[in-house]
Amino acid sequence: MKKVRLSLKGRSYDILIGRDLLRRAGEILAKLALGRDAVVISNSRILRLYGEAFRRSLAGSRLTARFERVPDSEKAKAHRTAVDLLDRIAAYDKRKTLFIVAFGGGVIGDLAGFVAAVYKRGVPYAQIPTTLLAQVDSAIGGKTGIDLPVAKNLAGAFHQPKVVISDISLLKTLSPRQVRNGLAEIIKYAVIGDRRFFGYLESNYGRILRLDDKSLEFVISRSSAIKARLVEKDELDRKGIRAALNYGHTIGHAIETAEGYSDLIYHGEAIAIGMVVAGRIAVKMGMMRPAELARIKSLIGNAGLPTKIRSGRLFAPIFAAHLHDKKFIRGKNRLVLPTGIGRVRIVEGVPDSVIRGALKEESVS
Ligand SMILES: NC(=O)c1ccc[n+]([C@@H]2O[C@H](COP(=O)([O-])OP(=O)(O)OC[C@H]3O[C@@H](n4cnc5c(N)ncnc54)[C@H](O)[C@@H]3O)[C@@H](O)[C@H]2O)c1
Ligand SMILES: [Zn+2]
Fold first, then answer.
1. Where on the phi/psi map is residue 359: left (φ > 0), alpha (ψ -120 to 50), or beta?
2. How far is the CA of 142 from the centre of ligand 2 (A)?
3. Distance 126 CA to ligand 2 centre (A)
4. Residue to mutate, 19, 20, 133, 211, ligand 1, most ligand atoms under 8 Å from C-beta
5. Among 41, 149, 247, 355, who pairs with 336 as Cys (CB 3.0-4.6 Å)?
């Protein structure tokens, strides 16, 4: 097992990465003394696969457990679901010493974290992420949130978990497309902060896609550590340090919006293209050598992720959507651009003509 510490004074916690950790989760949670009564938020798919194992692990540590099921997919982040959960938890919470456990992918993590942040103005919670994306990204750092009818992730709070338990054995039941979805975020970490790690990914992406235990443990720990260091320096995302994590995301979100947030494109696929477009913008602005972009693009392509916008017809809706990005500052765009593999810079006011040009060049004509 590997351990990455995220240090934030009284809000510090461990991120544990390894095989068969679910079996030990009860013991780990009991030791932390978060409470005696676990409210586990999950969905039917995950509980069918791993519910019994988790139930046994909790029972073995004398923690009581109540399992709350929410719908599968992004639907679970609707404000209705959050309010229903709060009602159910409040009815159950009679003389209980409860804490919350997010047991699922990023959707469950964001929702359960949000409920933990607002119930009684904050109760302790643990993250047990079950997708590769959640293990390397969403379970770490305390950003919680739900969707509102007008936009995704529009209501939220910062609330750090007390522990993150990343059991790599749970990833075996993910579809290959879900694995690639997480790999896109791993590539992002390498480009924003670790050139050697990028080299490792170039030689080992095949092992990761085959879910080789050693490679998974390594890339999840390395990614967790890169994210942890950024969160430590800028917990509330106000200093422009944590913002580096948005590499590929401004254009990526615009692509997701243009595709109507459908299964046509997963988040990781959208940011894969977003990373290429941001790289192209950097090259056009003379900030990065074309050879660096070529390496980024070829790793993304080798990993089985898309590198191009699938149709020139999407170009106009993507450009329009990017204008509504919530990270715009006083009407000026703000993009995370690589200056080379392993380093990024945040640039404001990139000319529209450069963005349009990069989008066109990276579209299938
Ligand atoms: N808070 C943050 O910092 C942050 C960062 C990145 C993404 N996010 C959020 O994360 C969400 C996306 O997360 P995701 O990609 O994990 O999607 P997800 O939670 O929808 O999971 C994808 C699918 O895989 C299933 N699944 C989960 N674990 C499984 C397993 N072990 N085996 C088989 N199937 C499994 C889920 O039921 C679901 O159908 C988005 O809502 C996004 O906004 C948050
Ligand atoms: Zn992302």
1. alpha
2. 14
3. 21
4. 133
5. 247
| pLDDT for 365 beyond 80 | no
| Structural contact between residues 142 and 158, judged by C-beta atoms closer than 8 angstroms | yes
181 CB near ligand 1 (under 6 Å): yes
Distance (Å) from CA 130 to ligand 1 centroid: 8
For the CA of 186, the nearest ligand: 2
- Expressed in angstroms and rounded, the spacing between residue 263 Cα and the centre of ligand 1 is 13
Which DSSP state fits 134? I
- For 34, half-sphere exposure in the C-beta direction (CA atoms, 13 angstrom radius) is 28
200-253: per-residue pLDDT in tens?
999 999 999 999 999 999 999 999 999 999 999 999 999 999 999 999 999 999
- Phi/psi of residue 35, each to 5°? 155, 175
Tokens (6 digits) for 203:
């030689």
Statement: the pTM of the whole predicted model exceeds 0.90: yes
Nearest-atom number in ligand 1 for the CA of 143 is 1
Q: Which residues of the chain form beta strands (DSSP E)? A: 2-6, 13-18, 37-42, 64-69, 98-104, 125-129, 143-148, 151-158, 163-167, 334-340, 343-348
Q: Quick one: which atom of ligand 1 is closest to the CA of 129?
A: 28
Give yes or no for residue 165 having a pLDDT over 80: yes
